[in-house]
Specification:
34% helix; 9 helices; six-stranded mixed beta sheet; globular; four-stranded antiparallel beta sheet; alpha/beta; binds adenosine-5'-triphosphate; binds magnesium ion
Length: 261
């Protein structure tokens, strides 16, 4: 889906999108999952001791889902997100991204996949301070070798999508925290990723700004963006449509959430 389609797609055709179907419906089952983990295991060596980061996780995320992962500090949320984002490899089990076994890819192939198919949003916005908001949003397209004129068009479109057209030429230091996170979200979307990964995206924001950012996530999800969000905050997690709870490197529950429209 292009950025223009994201912006201009009329409401009435949205339910036709495969991702808009409820999980478990016949149509959703026919669509290849974005993410599939099977017996996923991650172990960190700490001196002689071993710390288990992920202990045999199994789950699938389909296109169009909005999943949040909750759990106490140290339970493995960021570990999971890093694995899904291909920033870290599993020590056991299997990870399929859009049906492709990740273990078979070398580092160069992984980094190409990451830059084209996965968007990242973090608690700290990680914007380059010497570049304007628009230039920050263009950056993933530089890595993806997209031509300059197209980069500019797509970056402007992404800035409009997050409601920041009037701040495009500002430096990050001239933007509020919420605006900086919007820039980071625009940056995460410019390559039209199959998956948007967010690790505590509202962790550095005040409560009203957090509400605004979560509203933006819900709007993006309603337009078909698949979102996987990690948080320790129940208020944040309940904005998703599915909630996975973790404890001690395990999944302890995985439930569908009812959400007010
Ligand atoms: N690079 C690493 N080396 C060693 N141990 C690690 C490493 N990264 C994470 N761990 C350990 O793995 C476990 C899971 O860590 P993780 O960062 O995934 O937790 P988390 O759920 O994201 O916590 P928080 O809510 O505090 O961010 C913890 O015990 C942590 O100390
Ligand atoms: Mg974490």
């Amino acid at each position: 889906m292009s950025m223009d389609e994201l912006r201009s797609e009329p409401d009435e055709i949205r339910p036709c999108r495969a991702g808009a179907k409820p999980l478990g419906s016949t149509v959703a089952m026919e669509v290849a999952p974005v993410v599939s983990l099977q017996k996923a295991q991650k172990v960190y060596a700490r001196g002689a001791a071993k710390v288990v980061g992920l202990d045999g996780l199994d789950f699938t995320v389909h296109p169009g889902e909005f999943v949040s992962v909750m759990g106490p500090s140290g339970c493995g949320k960021s570990t999971l997100l890093n694995v899904l984002g291909t920033l870290d490899r599993l020590d056991g089990g299997e990870y399929f991204f859009e049906g492709q076994p990740i273990a078979a890819l070398d580092d160069a192939a992984l980094s190409a996949l990451r830059s084209k198919r996965i968007g990242f949003v973090f608690q700290q916005f990680h914007l380059l301070q010497r570049y304007s908001a628009l230039e920050n949003v263009e950056l993933p397209m530089v890595y993806a070798r997209i031509a300059k004129t197209e980069r500019r068009v797509r970056a402007e479109s992404a800035m409009a999508l997050v409601g920041l057209t009037d701040r495009m030429h500002h430096l990050p230091t001239e933007l509020s925290g919420g605006q900086q996170q919007r820039v980071a979200i625009a940056r995460s979307l410019v390559n039209d990723p199959a998956l948007l990964l967010a690790d505590e995206p509202t962790g550095a924001l005040d409560s009203q700004t957090s509400v605004d950012i979560l509203r933006l996530f819900k709007e993006l999800n309603a337009r078909g963006v698949t979102i996987f969000m990690v948080t320790h905050d129940a208020e944040v997690a309940k904005n998703a449509r599915r909630l996975i709870r973790m404890k001690d490197a395990h999944i302890v529950s995985d439930e569908r959430l009812e959400r007010a429209a």
